[in-house]
Amino acid sequence: MTRLAVVTGGGTGIGRATAGMLAGEGFDVIIVGRRAEVLADAVKWIGPQATAVTADAADPAQIPAVVEAVAGRPLDVLVNNAGAYIGGDDTTLDAVAARWRANLDSNVLSAVLMTTALLPQLRRPGGKIILTSSIAAQRGGGGPYSAAKAALHGYGLDLATSLGAEGITANVIAPGYVTDSEFFDGRMTPEGHRKRVDASVLKRAGTPDDIAEAVRWLIGPGGGFVTGQIINVNGGSVLGR
Ligand SMILES: NC(=O)c1ccc[n+]([C@@H]2O[C@H](COP(=O)([O-])OP(=O)(O)OC[C@H]3O[C@@H](n4cnc5c(N)ncnc54)[C@H](OP(=O)(O)O)[C@@H]3O)[C@@H](O)[C@H]2O)c1
């Protein structure tokens, strides 16, 4: 039977590239996001193996739609890629609380809820869980976004520990600066771009395909003995962690 993958945030950027890679590997792919029209465009781009579920991964009430789409099939790969940097002013404690909660919801709770709901479906042995963190977790610079992504590291290590005996791997990919996504929409300047490129030892920005290729390795035979790791895919912007 055709293998099945779920990719949250699969409508754009890194998630779309990952879903496309998985379809190319022969997977049926369910992509999840909040905007139906964006998902519909992505389904066209990915091809006939893709289907979409419009859902907010951070809302417990909307997760059952994803479980229904899986429809009792064994789930081979879950890529918890949905997330965002959520800015805001920090002038009041209420504003600080709202911004921290929003970043934690978007980047942590989304992965926790999706993983918890789909865990019974994950193939045993052989299921793969991937969490998309960020270089911001390794070096700061993003306020609550950095802290939220760092929380994913602890969550990923915990999943690896608790699920290893069932033959399920869990790993975190921490991308560096990646263009060709919506992540920096309205926030990037030519100076900001140059600074990030200069900070990488490879002197270039990453692409969504760079991250999708790391996923390809983790879910393929090369990743069979890899679990509980933070995989940095950052052009050398942070070394050796
Ligand atoms: N680009 C970078 O430089 C970079 C670096 C390090 C880490 N990352 C991480 O990589 C991941 C992918 O980012 P990207 O660069 O590809 O940016 P992106 O194009 O903005 O992708 C994020 C995707 O997640 C979806 N999403 C966000 N919140 C969601 C929610 N609550 N429920 C369901 N879907 C949600 C978005 O679609 P909707 O808005 O339609 O829901 C969007 O398709 C993110 O976790 C990001 O933090 C990116």
UniProtKB/TrEMBL annotation:
Spell out the InterPro entries in the cross-references. Answer: NAD(P)-bd_dom_sf, SDR_fam
SUPFAM superfamilies, per database record: NAD(P)-binding Rossmann-fold domains
- Name the domain of life: Bacteria
A GO molecular-function descriptor: oxidoreductase activity
Q: Name one Pfam family in it.
A: adh_short_C2
Question: Which residue ranges traverse the bilayer?
Answer: none
Keyword field: Oxidoreductase
Tell me its family: Belongs to the short-chain dehydrogenases/reductases (SDR) family.
What protein name does the entry list? 3-oxoacyl-[acyl-carrier protein] reductase
